[in-house]
Specification:
- By secondary structure, this protein is of the alpha/beta class.
- It folds into 3 domains: 81 residues, ACP-like (Non-ribosomal Peptide Synthetase Peptidyl Carrier Protein, Chain A, Orthogonal Bundle); 112 residues, 3-Layer(aba) Sandwich (Rossmann fold), CATH 3.40.50.1820; 31 residues, no CATH class.
- Helices cover 36% and strands 10% of the residues.
- The chain has a 5-stranded mixed beta sheet with strand order 1-3-2-4-5.
Length: 242
Protein backbone atom coordinates (compact mmCIF):
# COMPACT_ATOMS: atom_id res chain seq x y z
CA UNK A 1 0.00 0.00 0.00
CA UNK A 2 1.40 3.40 -0.93
CA UNK A 3 1.63 6.43 1.31
CA UNK A 4 -1.04 8.27 -0.69
CA UNK A 5 -3.63 5.57 0.13
CA UNK A 6 -3.09 5.68 3.89
CA UNK A 7 -6.12 7.17 5.60
CA UNK A 8 -7.79 6.79 8.93
CA UNK A 9 -10.60 4.63 7.54
CA UNK A 10 -8.04 2.00 6.42
CA UNK A 11 -6.72 1.84 9.98
CA UNK A 12 -10.22 1.78 11.45
CA UNK A 13 -11.13 -1.23 9.32
CA UNK A 14 -7.85 -2.96 10.18
CA UNK A 15 -8.34 -2.55 13.94
CA UNK A 16 -12.01 -3.55 13.71
CA UNK A 17 -10.92 -6.70 11.89
CA UNK A 18 -8.47 -7.58 14.64
CA UNK A 19 -11.18 -6.97 17.26
CA UNK A 20 -13.87 -8.72 15.17
CA UNK A 21 -16.19 -5.78 15.70
CA UNK A 22 -18.02 -3.14 13.67
CA UNK A 23 -15.67 -0.36 12.45
CA UNK A 24 -18.14 2.17 13.91
CA UNK A 25 -17.10 0.96 17.36
CA UNK A 26 -13.52 2.09 16.70
CA UNK A 27 -14.00 5.85 17.00
CA UNK A 28 -11.13 8.27 16.46
CA UNK A 29 -10.66 9.05 20.15
CA UNK A 30 -11.67 5.72 21.77
CA UNK A 31 -8.87 4.72 24.16
CA UNK A 32 -7.35 1.42 23.06
CA UNK A 33 -7.13 -0.22 26.49
CA UNK A 34 -9.84 1.58 28.48
CA UNK A 35 -12.66 1.62 25.91
CA UNK A 36 -11.73 -0.97 23.28
CA UNK A 37 -10.21 -3.52 25.69
CA UNK A 38 -7.08 -3.95 23.58
CA UNK A 39 -4.55 -5.83 25.69
CA UNK A 40 -0.85 -6.32 24.93
CA UNK A 41 -1.45 -9.42 22.78
CA UNK A 42 -4.12 -7.73 20.70
CA UNK A 43 -1.88 -4.68 20.32
CA UNK A 44 0.86 -6.94 19.03
CA UNK A 45 -1.58 -8.43 16.50
CA UNK A 46 -2.68 -4.96 15.41
CA UNK A 47 0.96 -3.88 15.16
CA UNK A 48 1.73 -6.82 12.87
CA UNK A 49 -1.26 -6.04 10.66
CA UNK A 50 -0.32 -2.35 10.41
CA UNK A 51 3.27 -3.19 9.60
CA UNK A 52 2.18 -5.63 6.88
CA UNK A 53 -0.47 -3.35 5.38
CA UNK A 54 1.46 -0.09 5.39
CA UNK A 55 5.09 -1.12 5.30
CA UNK A 56 5.87 0.31 8.73
CA UNK A 57 9.11 -1.13 10.22
CA UNK A 58 8.66 -4.04 12.63
CA UNK A 59 7.69 -3.27 16.25
CA UNK A 60 7.50 0.50 15.72
CA UNK A 61 3.72 0.57 16.29
CA UNK A 62 4.06 -1.22 19.65
CA UNK A 63 6.66 1.26 20.90
CA UNK A 64 4.90 4.31 19.46
CA UNK A 65 2.74 4.69 22.56
CA UNK A 66 -0.35 5.50 20.47
CA UNK A 67 -3.45 5.31 22.67
CA UNK A 68 -6.19 6.07 20.14
CA UNK A 69 -6.91 5.57 16.46
CA UNK A 70 -6.24 9.26 15.80
CA UNK A 71 -2.81 9.00 17.45
CA UNK A 72 -2.01 5.80 15.56
CA UNK A 73 -3.04 7.40 12.26
CA UNK A 74 -0.77 10.40 12.90
CA UNK A 75 2.08 8.05 13.82
CA UNK A 76 1.74 5.87 10.72
CA UNK A 77 1.70 8.93 8.46
CA UNK A 78 4.70 10.48 10.19
CA UNK A 79 6.58 7.19 10.01
CA UNK A 80 5.92 6.77 6.31
CA UNK A 81 6.81 10.41 5.74
CA UNK A 82 10.12 9.77 7.48
CA UNK A 83 10.74 6.65 5.41
CA UNK A 84 10.32 8.64 2.19
CA UNK A 85 12.57 11.49 3.40
CA UNK A 86 9.61 13.87 3.40
CA UNK A 87 9.45 15.44 6.84
CA UNK A 88 6.75 17.85 8.04
CA UNK A 89 9.41 19.84 9.92
CA UNK A 90 11.63 22.02 7.71
CA UNK A 91 14.64 23.62 9.39
CA UNK A 92 16.17 26.25 7.09
CA UNK A 93 19.08 26.76 9.47
CA UNK A 94 19.64 23.47 11.35
CA UNK A 95 21.54 23.74 14.64
CA UNK A 96 22.96 20.90 16.71
CA UNK A 97 22.38 22.69 20.02
CA UNK A 98 19.99 25.65 19.58
CA UNK A 99 19.21 27.95 22.48
CA UNK A 100 15.55 27.92 21.47
CA UNK A 101 13.22 26.68 18.76
CA UNK A 102 10.34 28.52 17.13
CA UNK A 103 7.70 26.40 15.38
CA UNK A 104 5.77 28.15 12.60
CA UNK A 105 2.37 26.93 11.34
CA UNK A 106 1.09 28.07 7.94
CA UNK A 107 -2.44 28.98 6.86
CA UNK A 108 -4.86 26.56 5.17
CA UNK A 109 -4.10 27.56 1.59
CA UNK A 110 -0.37 27.93 2.08
CA UNK A 111 2.75 25.97 2.93
CA UNK A 112 5.99 26.34 4.88
CA UNK A 113 7.12 28.81 2.19
CA UNK A 114 5.13 31.50 4.02
CA UNK A 115 8.04 31.65 6.47
CA UNK A 116 10.96 30.90 4.14
CA UNK A 117 12.76 34.19 4.78
CA UNK A 118 12.20 34.47 8.52
CA UNK A 119 15.33 32.73 9.82
CA UNK A 120 17.61 35.69 9.04
CA UNK A 121 15.56 37.93 11.34
CA UNK A 122 16.12 35.82 14.47
CA UNK A 123 19.17 35.27 16.71
CA UNK A 124 21.79 32.97 15.24
CA UNK A 125 21.39 30.45 18.06
CA UNK A 126 17.63 30.09 17.46
CA UNK A 127 16.38 27.27 15.24
CA UNK A 128 13.24 27.93 13.20
CA UNK A 129 11.08 24.90 12.45
CA UNK A 130 8.59 25.41 9.62
CA UNK A 131 5.67 22.96 9.78
CA UNK A 132 4.21 21.52 6.59
CA UNK A 133 0.72 20.02 6.55
CA UNK A 134 0.07 16.86 4.51
CA UNK A 135 -1.18 17.73 1.03
CA UNK A 136 0.68 21.05 1.00
CA UNK A 137 4.10 22.12 -0.28
CA UNK A 138 6.62 19.31 -0.48
CA UNK A 139 4.11 16.94 1.19
CA UNK A 140 1.53 17.43 -1.56
CA UNK A 141 1.59 13.72 -2.42
CA UNK A 142 0.29 12.85 1.06
CA UNK A 143 -3.47 12.77 1.68
CA UNK A 144 -4.64 16.01 3.34
CA UNK A 145 -5.86 15.81 6.93
CA UNK A 146 -9.23 17.56 7.04
CA UNK A 147 -9.82 17.26 10.79
CA UNK A 148 -8.27 19.73 13.26
CA UNK A 149 -7.70 17.19 16.03
CA UNK A 150 -6.00 14.74 13.68
CA UNK A 151 -3.77 17.48 12.27
CA UNK A 152 -2.80 18.39 15.84
CA UNK A 153 -2.00 14.70 16.42
CA UNK A 154 0.14 14.66 13.30
CA UNK A 155 2.18 17.72 14.27
CA UNK A 156 2.41 16.61 17.91
CA UNK A 157 4.03 13.36 16.83
CA UNK A 158 6.39 15.18 14.45
CA UNK A 159 7.72 17.77 16.90
CA UNK A 160 7.74 15.75 20.14
CA UNK A 161 11.49 14.93 19.89
CA UNK A 162 12.27 18.65 19.40
CA UNK A 163 10.66 19.93 22.59
CA UNK A 164 13.82 19.38 24.64
CA UNK A 165 14.65 23.08 25.07
CA UNK A 166 12.78 26.42 25.29
CA UNK A 167 10.40 26.79 22.35
CA UNK A 168 7.60 28.91 21.00
CA UNK A 169 4.68 28.55 18.58
CA UNK A 170 3.46 30.99 15.95
CA UNK A 171 0.55 30.35 13.60
CA UNK A 172 -1.28 32.35 10.95
CA UNK A 173 -5.02 31.86 10.31
CA UNK A 174 -5.61 28.07 10.40
CA UNK A 175 -2.04 27.81 11.68
CA UNK A 176 -3.07 29.98 14.63
CA UNK A 177 -5.83 27.51 15.51
CA UNK A 178 -3.43 24.56 15.21
CA UNK A 179 -0.79 26.29 17.37
CA UNK A 180 -3.41 27.05 20.04
CA UNK A 181 -4.93 23.57 20.03
CA UNK A 182 -1.48 21.97 20.07
CA UNK A 183 -0.61 24.04 23.14
CA UNK A 184 -3.79 22.77 24.81
CA UNK A 185 -2.85 19.21 23.84
CA UNK A 186 0.62 19.57 25.39
CA UNK A 187 -0.93 20.92 28.59
CA UNK A 188 -3.46 18.06 28.71
CA UNK A 189 -0.74 15.44 28.15
CA UNK A 190 1.60 17.00 30.72
CA UNK A 191 4.24 17.69 28.06
CA UNK A 192 6.56 20.73 27.95
CA UNK A 193 4.68 23.94 27.12
CA UNK A 194 5.79 26.75 24.79
CA UNK A 195 7.36 29.76 26.46
CA UNK A 196 5.46 31.90 23.96
CA UNK A 197 2.40 31.42 21.75
CA UNK A 198 1.80 33.92 18.95
CA UNK A 199 -1.19 33.96 16.61
CA UNK A 200 -2.45 36.13 13.76
CA UNK A 201 -5.55 36.32 11.53
CA UNK A 202 -7.74 34.30 13.87
CA UNK A 203 -10.23 35.31 16.53
CA UNK A 204 -9.52 34.68 20.19
CA UNK A 205 -11.19 31.62 21.78
CA UNK A 206 -14.50 32.38 23.52
CA UNK A 207 -16.08 29.91 25.90
CA UNK A 208 -19.34 31.87 25.81
CA UNK A 209 -19.67 31.92 22.02
CA UNK A 210 -23.27 31.43 20.96
CA UNK A 211 -25.08 30.88 17.69
CA UNK A 212 -24.43 34.49 16.67
CA UNK A 213 -20.74 33.64 16.41
CA UNK A 214 -21.30 30.42 14.45
CA UNK A 215 -23.31 31.07 11.28
CA UNK A 216 -23.20 27.41 10.26
CA UNK A 217 -25.51 26.62 13.21
CA UNK A 218 -28.14 29.23 12.29
CA UNK A 219 -31.54 28.58 10.81
CA UNK A 220 -32.16 29.79 7.25
CA UNK A 221 -33.92 32.94 8.47
CA UNK A 222 -31.20 33.68 11.03
CA UNK A 223 -28.50 33.19 8.41
CA UNK A 224 -30.24 35.57 5.98
CA UNK A 225 -30.49 38.20 8.72
CA UNK A 226 -26.87 37.73 9.73
CA UNK A 227 -25.67 38.08 6.12
CA UNK A 228 -27.79 41.21 5.71
CA UNK A 229 -26.31 42.78 8.85
CA UNK A 230 -22.70 42.09 7.93
CA UNK A 231 -23.20 43.22 4.33
CA UNK A 232 -22.45 39.79 2.92
CA UNK A 233 -25.36 39.58 0.51
CA UNK A 234 -26.79 41.90 -2.16
CA UNK A 235 -30.44 42.89 -2.45
CA UNK A 236 -30.81 40.75 -5.58
CA UNK A 237 -29.40 37.74 -3.79
CA UNK A 238 -31.66 38.32 -0.80
CA UNK A 239 -34.70 38.34 -3.11
CA UNK A 240 -33.57 35.13 -4.82
CA UNK A 241 -32.95 33.40 -1.48
CA UNK A 242 -36.25 34.47 0.06
Amino acid sequence: MTTTSVNIEDLRALIAGALETDPKEVTDEAHFSDELDIDSLLMLEISTRVETAFGVPENTVVISGAKTLAELHAFVISKLVGETSACPVIRPRPLSDPAARLFLFHHAGGSHLLYRGWAEHFPQDWELCLLEAPGRGHLQTLPPIDDCDRLVDYFHTAIAPLLDRPFGFFGHSLGALIAYQLTRRLHHEGDPLPDWLGVSAHGAPRVDAGTDDRPHLMSDDELRGWLRNVGGITAAMRSAAA
